[in-house]
Batch of 3 targets.
Target 1
Amino acid sequence: MSQQTKIILGFATIYLVWGSTYLAIRLGVETMPPFLMAGGRFIIGGLMLYGWARFNGIAKPKPAHLLPALILGFLMPLGGAGMVTWAETLISSGLAALLVAMVPLWIALIDWLRPGGSRPQTMTTIGLYLGFIGMALLILPSISGQLSDVNPIGALIIVGSSLSWAIGSIYSKQARQPKSKTLGTGMQMLAGGVGLMIASGLTGEFQQLDLSAISLISWASFTYLALIGSVTFAVYIWLLSKTSASKVATYAYVNPIIAMILGAMFAGESFSAWTLFCSVIVIGAVVLVIMSKGRSKNESPEHDASTDAIGPAPDPALSVRCQNR
């Protein structure tokens, strides 16, 4: 198999697998407590990645790596992906994927407004305006009761989770982390998983848990998220070593499209013409921001995307360093 064919298959994998995780979450939370499900998948995925790194001879993390891993674990798997999982009990998987895709916009905005931040290029600025206008058009009418196909509470939770993920992404650029991306991501997933288990306990999910009530499709979705999502992370890291970060970041606007299609096909999700119109605006804005980010760097295939926050974690719960979610 040629290198080009492998790269094409790699892109197909991160597009399809990570685009499908939103549907898997939606099917999982139908009968499984959301924080418990998210915590379990993170702990399993974190153990897999951490174990794989150690098995391949990566040294143990240093004590200085523990606090950053804890902070990132709480900002991204817990504050980001965990809240996405809970929000999908209220909104469709396609809408969740769309709002998560706005992470690059939040990152660009925070990077602009922070002390010493850099003013974005014209294309990025246009993308920011378009993206937040699209989000406002999508959410605000539902709050006022003019449109009914978007649950405003669920949508606002996703917005908050995306902001948490963006803050974590920016913090990860200067946080002290292991050189091994796999080891560092495993640590963050474990930290977030433990945090989600605590949230599960505090919200009474353990007391309400009835294993006999969990459907086979929910168990299958949980297994898919924990195992297949983690394996796909290796494909993602490999792609970053073979092509530019801006090309890999195209999942940020492909994933919502995949999620919407799969949600309509397998979960009976439907969207009004207004929601689809707003979706086009938001996805277009993400395209502009990512294209601008790619053009602003003279990237080579060896460019390390771990120093750039150009996109969200594709799966709202996996690539918790936003290497590049």
Target 2
Amino acid sequence: MANSIEEIREQLPGLSQRLFSKPNVIATGIGYKKVQGKKTGNLCIICSVITKVTAASLRENELIPKTISGIPTDILPTGAIHALASPKDRFRPSPGGVSIGHINITAGTLGCLVKKGNKLYILSNNHVLANSNKAVRGDIILQPGPHDGGTLSNDQIAKLSDFIPVRFEDEAGGCFITKAITGTFNFFARLTGSDTRLYQVNKGSKGNLVDCAIAEPFNKDDVINEILTIGSITGASEGVLDMKVKKSGRTTGHTEGIIDQVDATVRVNFGAGRTALFTDQLIAGPMSQGGDSGSVVLNNHDEIVGLLFAGSTNTTIINRIQNVFSELDLTLA
């Protein structure tokens, strides 16, 4: 039986594929098994399910085994996991933790300030700043977000600069013709100076690592390099199992939690029938609600460990900050 996180981590990708074939399973990750609601010291694979059902209502092959390849499992009912978004006030200068959003969304959270090269940017989620792939670079970002009363006439704070496209499971697979059309369109877009780009999304492709985007402030004086109720970020660190974490978000404000799972694979519902699979995620308990998407997650030393982007009534899903910085080539401001 596996007795270390390294042994379970090595087997987890293959085992996750098997577990995701079971009804209701929406996330798998490494955590400590609970018995009668109390955490034990035994590592296991935690299977998050939309709702817990009786064994009698399932076929034999639909049951989550008590162990898989010698590794114990545990079942955690979470409800559906949704990308988070919602709202509040106007701040100038704007710190991390306040309402922000693309002109065509409701509202999410301004994460923190970052740098790409020598330029300063605002960091948040793709679904907050880039409208879940629907935006065009240069689109206007409002603070507060539109749902909080942000308007084009009064509340423009930045323009969308870059984002990592989310690969949705329900979008059509790619083919040679699609690649050719996409490549031709993007070639002429570059020639004409257009920021518009097409992205080919392949069904069945590997999961996403991040839901992230950056926006360039129109005026550097309109933003401040600190997090509301927390203060300055002191550096970056890796999120690990049992780490105490905190965040400041637009809806629930300052909340704290514990990383209960690492190396998690999670299926996230983005609405309108679209779902996306994310891998190498951190999962904490109920420390967020809709509108907290884009919040940065910090440890007790005020070091950034992740970017919050999704959750349910009792879980919070977090991108590893190392993956966010790597994908967008960022550093802390």
Target 3
Amino acid sequence: MGGNKLFLSAGETLLIERVLGRVMPCFQETLIIVGPDDLYSLEKLLESTRRCYPVRIVPDSEPGKGPLEGLATSLEAIKTQWAFVIGCDMPLVQEAVIRVLWNARTPESQVVCARLGGFLEPLHAFYSASCLPEARKALAAGERRVKSFFDGVVLTVVEEEDFRSLPGYRRSFSGVNTPGELLRLLNPGLP
């Protein structure tokens, strides 16, 4: 996209505001994990949203280490046992999809993640706080990818067939990665 997706706007609204509008009704608390350089700007941009909804903006503990650091920081900051982690560029997240993932947990689960088209979706998944030691271990080994520690935890995979009864379930996992994808988001009738 040529810039920080955190500040990407979709019409009159930031993309992150669209994500928040869809996830906040599902959870008691919402955190946005950001690099320290983005903290002040995002706090200002979301000032009115934060007056209406309980949103905490938390800077990465160790900036510059990618999505895995964001996950680890969120697991350190949450007040609950579980966190639903989603990318700031996924504005079409669906509550029904979130429920399918949540309901797939077992007592042993540490990560609940969907597999679509043969690929895991780590930035649209649930993580137990018990994942934190493995995530930090992966970071110490130089990893940046969220999936890098999955071998060290109990992973519950929700297969695509489990979502098929939900109309448009794949859109929930869609991120905005190009100007064309953003244009289609703003104009759903475009091919």
